[in-house]
Amino acid sequence: RKMTHKIKIRESFADAVLRGDKTFEVRNNDRGYQCGDMVQFTVLYDSDGLKMLSHPLSKKTYRITYVLSGWGIQDGYVVFGIKPVEDNDCADCKLSEEEKMRGGCQLCMAR
User: Fold this and answer.
1) What is the dihedral of CA 71, 107, 86, 80, to 10 degrees?
2) For 38, what's the count of Cα atoms within 13 Å in the CB-facing half-sphere?
3) 90 vs 65, which has greater pLDDT?
4) Secondary structure (3-state) at 10
5) Which residue has the higher pLDDT, 24 or 2?
6) Secondary structure of 50-64 in the HEC alphabet?
7) Cα-trace Rg, the chain
8) Pairing between strand 24-28 and 38-44?
9) C-alpha angle with apex 6: 106 to 57, nearest 5 degrees?
10) How many CB atoms lie within 10 A of CB 94?
């Protein structure tokens, strides 16, 4: 079952995600991140990392496109790729038609 993860991110990283420069996250895998899950960010100020900041990234949803563990990644952590969810993406699995034609993510291929 796909989940939507609400996770915190510092402002400088949020800016890079919004620009499309940062297309991945390195996270403790305490949530069981899976390919096909959705991510929504709560942006925090860089200065203290505690206070929430009104930021355009907070209004967007991203889809996890790839999950990597092992291979030099510290135990308990994952690196996952993210891609913005667009309005024309498939409502069921949030993959665009082009991605579905290429085989999609592992969850979609298992259907």
Assistant:
1) -10
2) 16
3) 65
4) strand
5) 24
6) CCECCCHHHHCEEEE
7) 14
8) unpaired
9) 95
10) 22
Tokens linked to 92? 């069921």
Q: Provide DSSP, 23-85.
A: -EEEEE-TT---TT-EEEEEEE-TTTS-SB---GGGG-EEEEEEEE-STTPPTTEEEEEEEEP
**Residue 76 structure tokens:** 């308990």
Greatest mean pLDDT among 13-17, 51-55, 89-93: 13-17
pTM: 0.75
pLDDT tens, residue by residue, 28-86: 999 999 999 999 999 998 777 677 778 999 999 999 999 999 989 999 999 999 999 97
Q: Is the dihedral of CA 68, 72, 73, 76 positive or negative?
A: positive
Identify residue 84 by its one-letter amino acid code: P
Q: Tokens 């919004």 label which residue?
A: 18
